[in-house]
C-alpha cells in the first residue's frame, strides 16, 4: 500500500468508519481540526506524537495497538 504514514492514515479512516464516527465528530473528540484529520487519513501529513496519542485514545486504542494495526494494512 505504501508508506507507514499512508497505512496509518487508512487504518485511522477504517477504524473511525467502523466506529460509526463522522470525520468532524471524531476530530472534535481528538481535539484536532477536521481538515487536519482529513490530511492524516489521506496520509498527507506527518502526525505529531501528541496528536497520535489523541487519535489512538479516540479509537479506544493504545498508540502501540494503532501502529500495529497500521503495520498489518495492505
Provide an overview of this structure.
The protein has helices at about 5-20, 25-30, 35-40, 50-60, 65-70. α2 (about 25-30) packs across α3 (about 35-40) and α2 packs across α4 (about 50-60). It has 5 helices and no strands. It has one domain (about 5-70): lambda repressor-like DNA-binding domains (434 Repressor (Amino-terminal Domain)), CATH 1.10.260.40. With about 70 residues, it is mostly helical.
Number of helices: 5
Average pLDDT over all residues: 95
Give the class-level CATH name.
Mainly Alpha
Classification by helices and strands: mainly alpha
| Main sheet makeup | none
Question: Cα distance, first to last residue?
Answer: 5 Å
Shape: globular
Q: What's the CATH architecture name?
A: Orthogonal Bundle
pLDDT < 50 stretches: none
Give a short synopsis of this structure:
The protein has 74 residues and is mainly alpha-helical.
Amino acid at each position: 500500500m505504501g508508506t507507514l504514514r499512508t497505512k496509518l492514515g487508512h487504518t485511522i479512516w477504517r477504524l473511525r468508519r467502523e466506529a460509526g464516527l463522522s470525520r468532524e465528530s471524531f476530530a472534535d473528540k481528538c481535539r484536532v481540526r477536521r481538515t487536519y484529520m482529513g490530511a492524516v487519513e489521506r496520509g498527507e501529513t506527518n502526525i505529531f506524537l501528541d496528536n497520535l496519542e489523541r487519535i489512538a485514545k479516540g479509537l479506544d486504542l493504545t498508540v502501540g495497538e494503532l501502529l500495529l494495526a497500521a503495520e498489518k494494512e495492505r
